[in-house]
Design a protein that fits this description.
Number of domains: 1
Radius of gyration: 14 Å
Distance between the termini: 30 Å
Order of helices and strands: HHH
Strand content: under 5%
């Protein structure tokens, strides 16, 4: 699950130029790494990340897709 569904496990303090990235899912649901609190929030809320993890653990393979890919798949299902 970690780094497949929820990225960021094992990340180190980003170097120069990478600090503009968003907070990882890991750092969003496991606050505590001081350097991560300086990063902009993740696009997903804590609840959305846990929902994605729970879906993956329940066998829902769409949980392994990026948010953009999940949206595209949902739109194609509507067609």
């Amino acid at each position: 699950v970690w780094n497949v569904v929820a990225d960021g496990f094992g990340n180190n303090d980003p170097g120069s130029g990478r600090e503009k990235g968003r907070r990882s899912m890991w750092d969003t649901i496991h606050p505590g790494r001081r350097w991560a609190t300086a990063l902009p929030n993740n696009e997903l809320s804590v609840d959305e990340i846990w929902e994605k993890i729970n879906h993956a653990l329940a066998g829902d393979t769409t949980a392994f897709l990026s948010s953009e890919d999940q949206l595209a798949e949902a739109q194609s299902d509507d067609d």
